[in-house]
Design brief:
The structure holds 2 protein chains of 2 kinds. Chain A has 12 helices and 16 strands. Chain A is an alpha/beta fold. The chains are: A alpha/beta, B alpha/beta.
């Protein structure tokens, strides 16, 4: 039976179903409701865990690292500045190959200060060595959280589940929560082969000289590449349990016959699907959603782009001075295709700017333009810019 | 019978060593000695969270390790937070394995302060040990907030405008004590019995405990490596490093000084204070300043003994048989 749950509430319930033994988190908008909901579940005796209310995100990440290394399933969540404050620990967790799940309630990064949604925070740590999965809706956030634990623990790789701040975390939706039996059947009890144990003492986090560092990095990179089928399998096998798919690696959300493709990430995919429904007189575009951003699913992406003449990549972050982040990676991935589509790259919805249905025709228009758009911010409102000295 | 690496007499002296020989510390390293003493007293049923620093580097050049206990190094500034997570895991698993956090003064007084305060405030059952060698030794002797006033480091060099470090050594024990934790103490490698006793005491306490261990660094302090213990003992006997125990924020006991030594006895053995012995009025002023700091410590902690005491600065590390051994 679906229940009307706020995104954060649904995520908290999903986390509880995964039975982490240690949870550590620090409040930050728009993640706060997740840690608040978990605290309430703990206070009400509905969720038994060691809840560590830390003094910073830096410590939140450090606490869950220590807990997971000491043999307990652990969970944390954050956003924006919190993700950046954690970043040193995030790299460390991944390098130590400690299994963990973190929810990132995606939010813009200061300055200028903004509490609203974009993807600059998780994109900033894309090279930390974590798996990154982006959810399109709150049902997926629930299902992906459960899958994330299985992926993480099988591969000894941490997983970041990215959900759009406010758009998902603060939105009430009908949610199917799986039963405890379903989750227990899918997710075996936590077992970390290298767990710190006085009966089998080992040293973790040693100093590695140039003689071995390259090999460690290679192993980490290889493990992430080999995670691709595991991520797809976790989604497929969870679907066998509950009947719901969350999008695998790359999901073709709508087919289209115009040769135009639109690729997006996160909850904006739903907006574009709605727009295509409402604006049926436009050429039908194939709507592609990138669910898994790390590891980068280049083969699945090429498969999803087969037959396209133009692909519009829409993202909610940018690399200032370079351009798009996802767009650049998509271009690189499609380069080996025979008859690769042109790739037009746009940033939209930065710092929580609304992405309305009316934006959709402009994406189609861009795809049909004579010139390929290298990169542009599509929803820029030039009239708000100062008349002179644009860069200052 | 040869006295090889494993002398048969050893069989009659069963003693657990958490930190084994073969590591790469310098000769006379106070931190290596302190870590061995702490882990020896703590025993095998522990998990260690170790901050970045000399101790981490010289014990674990991959693929080797000198640790015989489960040990994790994460980062410089999160030894306390990682330990808190380990402790939460032990609690969740219903195990009573004690979690130890090891860090130097840089990882404790400076960059690790936030995590340490959080761990103490939340009451984790963790023994945090700070091996205090009074500067960033791993990166080549830079000043920390633990560096004593007027000491020379590579970032507090003496010169025409400066007489070494301008600021005072941070009173970390007072900050830790202000968290009103069950037990916080200072100790010195010069007094191994006292150090072991304090570790055992802390091990028996449920809740956060803290040990600040004065650990000479021959390289950074500029003394002969054979003199590490002598130097450490003089730091205590001058009153510059008070050896005290605090319970719930109040002083519970001190190691009395039988005969306070002038600070110059301590300073003159170390190159980091050499500029204070120049024929320079500023040097004389700084010497007076340091003597005043030692006198202040002796006064506020009541370190001056009324009469000889078996556990004072002369007697505390005397090898005894029988009752006093674990005094």
């Amino acid at each position: 039976m679906p229940q009307a749950l706020e995104g954060s509430q649904a995520i908290a319930r999903a986390v509880a179903l995964c039975r982490p033994q240690v949870v550590a988190a620090y409040p930050i908008t728009p993640q706060t409701h997740i840690v608040e909901n978990i605290s309430k579940l703990v206070a009400d005796g509905k969720f038994h865990c060691e809840l560590v209310s830390v003094e910073s995100e830096f410590s939140a990440a450090s606490v869950v690292l220590g807990a997971a290394a000491a043999g307990s399933r652990a969970y944390t969540a954050s956003a924006s500045q919190g993700i950046l404050l954690m970043s040193e620990v995030l790299f460390n967790i991944a390098g130590l190959r400690v299994p963990l799940v973190l929810t990132c309630a995606n939010r813009a990064v200061s300055a200028p200060l903004s509490i609203w949604n974009d993807h600059q925070d998780s994109m900033a740590v894309r090279d930390a060595g974590w798996i990154q999965l982006y959810c399109a809706d709150n049902q997926e956030a629930v299902d992906t959280t459960i899958q994330a634990y299985r992926i993480s623990e099988r591969l000894e790789l941490p997983v970041m589940v990215c959900v759009d701040g406010f758009t998902l975390t603060h939105t009430l939706e009908p949610i199917e929560l799986p039963s405890q039996e379903q989750v227990d059947g899918f997710l075996p009890p936590y077992h970390f082969a290298r767990a710190l144990d006085p009966m089998r003492p080992l040293s973790m986090g040693e100093l590695v000289t140039p003689a071995y560092f390259t090999e460690v990095r290679h192993m980490h990179h290889t493990a992430l590449r080999e995670a691709l089928p595991e991520i797809a399998a976790a989604d497929a096998e969870w679907a066998e349990v509950c009947g719901r798919h969350s999008g695998g690696l790359v999901q073709v959300v709508r087919e289209g016959d115009s040769g135009i493709g639109i690729l997006a990430i996160g909850s904006v995919v739903g907006t574009f699907a709605d727009a295509a429904d409402h604006l049926a007189d436009l050429p039908a575009a194939r709507l592609i959603r990138l669910r898994c951003f790390r590891p980068f699913p280049d083969a699945a992406l090429r498969e999803a782009c087969r037959g396209l003449t133009d692909l519009v990549v829409v993202e909610r972050a940018l690399s200032p001075g370079a351009g798009g982040i996802i767009g650049t990676e998509v271009r690189a991935a499609l380069r080996t295709m025979r008859d690769a589509p042109r790739v037009h790259n746009f940033a939209v919805g930065l710092g929580g700017r609304d992405v309305p249905l009316e934006l959709y025709p402009r994406l189609i228009e861009a795809a049909r333009a004579e010139e390929e758009t290298g990169f542009a911010i599509l929803d820029l409102e030039p009239e708000k810019l100062p008349e002179e000295g644009l860069s200052r | 019978m040869s006295a090889g690496p494993h002398h048969p007499l050893r069989d009659h002296q069963p003693r657990f060593q958490g930190l084994d020989s073969g590591h790469r510390a310098c000769q006379g390293c106070g931190e290596a000695l302190a870590a061995r003493l702490v882990t020896e007293a703590a025993g095998p049923d522990v998990i260690v969270s170790n901050a970045t620093g000399c101790l981490e580097v010289f014990t674990t050049p991959w693929p080797e390790t000198a640790w015989r206990i489960p040990w994790l190094h994460s980062l410089f500034e999160n030894a306390a937070s990682v330990a808190a997570g380990m402790e939460a895991a032990m609690r969740a698993q219903g195990r009573d394995t004690k979690v130890l956090a090891f860090a130097g003064d840089g990882g404790t007084f400076d960059i690790g302060m936030r995590g340490l305060s959080g761990m103490l405030e939340r009451g984790h059952n963790v023994l945090y040990v700070c091996f205090d060698n009074e500067a960033y030794m791993n990166t080549g002797v830079q000043r920390s907030s633990s560096t004593p006033h007027a000491a020379m480091t590579t970032t507090s060099p003496p010169g025409r405008e400066r007489m070494g470090k301008r600021h005072l050594k941070k009173d970390l024990l007072a900050i830790v004590a202000a968290h009103h934790i069950p037990y916080a103490a200072t100790a010195s490698v010069a007094y191994p019995s006292d150090l072991r006793k304090k570790v055992r005491r802390a091990m028996g306490i449920e809740g956060p405990t803290f040990l600040l261990v004065h650990s000479p660094c021959p390289l950074g302090w500029g003394h002969d490596s054979a003199l590490s213990i002598e130097v450490a003992r003089l730091a205590v006997q001058t009153g510059l490093f008070p050896v005290v125990e605090m319970e719930r924020g109040s002083v519970a006991s001190v190691m009395p000084i039988r005969e306070p030594c002038p600070v110059t006895d301590y300073l003159k053995l170390q190159r980091r204070f050499r500029h204070l012995f120049a024929d320079d009025p500023r040097a004389r002023e700084e010497l007076e300043h340091l003597q005043a700091l030692a006198d202040h410590n002796i006064e506020v902690y009541g370190l001056k003994a009324e009469g000889p005491d078996p556990l004072d600065t002369e007697g505390a590390d005397t090898v005894r048989r029988g009752g006093m051994r674990y005094a």
